[in-house]
Design goal:
8-stranded mixed sheet, 258 residues, alpha/beta
Length: 258
């Protein structure tokens, strides 16, 4: 049985932005880029990843306690922020895992600077638009509607813990802050960069694409499109899983990353 891993939270200065970072573990560096849901505090999947890697999991500007969102207006600004983050930590040739919004970020980084990354994992990523299979609307939903959209089993304990009907004030503040920041980055055009799809051929890094078979927010067709567009990529589909394998299929997710 693997021993528990201590995760710490500290802050890194990135050109005047105070960026919150979860760290833990040892071994090869793994940079985790979170989703619009804002998994920015230590969670079981962070600990499981840190049993195998030196985990670095920053909060994007505007999420949790990371500052500097006023300097960022779109996904390109956020992409260059992460180049500066890598430079600030002197990170090169790192492994990168991105969930949803974080997967989009990983691709924006990799089409520009593929040499900075060793291997890439995309988890139910947004970032492109398929006109015949539009992504669902995530803004303005009631908690029950959001659980139905994101989780395979919206009645599960994990679904209710992550999308609460009556969240505590501090948790509600983080949720609203995450939504506000996501809207700033990805309201129009909605959750994608129209130029990205035609740039994906530039990703020459080995890429693993993980997808929940029953993702109702970003359908499996998007995973198949990424697999077709990114050279040297592989698609793995999780049964009985929605948009967030990191929560609904934690063990399988970590096994695939490892």
């Amino acid at each position: 049985m693997t021993n528990p891993v201590d995760l710490t939270i500290d802050f890194v200065d990135v050109r005047g932005k105070k960026i919150q970072v979860i760290r833990g573990g040892e071994g090869e560096t793994l940079l985790y880029l979170h989703s619009a849901g804002g998994e920015t505090f230590p969670l079981p999947f962070h600990e499981e990843l840190a049993k195998h890697f030196s985990l670095i999991a920053p909060a994007h500007p505007g999420f949790h306690e990371s500052t500097g969102i006023e300097q960022i207006n779109d996904i390109e600004d956020l992409t260059f922020h992460y180049l500066e983050f890598l430079d600030a930590l002197k990170l090169d040739k790192v492994n990168i895992v991105g969930t949803s919004l974080g997967g989009w970020l990983a691709m924006e980084l990799a089409v520009r600077w593929p040499e900075r990354f060793k291997k890439i994992v995309l988890v139910d990523a947004v970032g492109i638009w398929l006109k015949d299979t539009p992504m669902a609307e995530m803004f303005g939903l009631e908690p029950a509607e959001l659980r139905e959209l994101v989780f395979f089993d919206p009645s599960s304990d994990i679904a209710h813990a992550l999308v609460q009907d009556e969240p505590a004030e501090d948790f509600l503040f983080l949720v609203l802050k995450a939504l506000e920041t996501t809207a700033r980055l990805a309201w129009n055009p909605y959750l994608h960069n129209p130029k990205l799809h035609n740039r994906l051929y530039r990703i020459n890094t080995p890429t693993l694409i993980l997808w929940g078979e029953h993702d109702k927010l970003v359908p499996l067709a998007y995973g198949e499109a990424f697999n077709k567009a990114i050279p040297n990529s592989k698609l793995v589909v999780f049964k009985d899983c929605g948009h967030m394998p990191i929560f609904e299929k934690t063990s399988e997710f970590v096994d695939e990353v490892v």
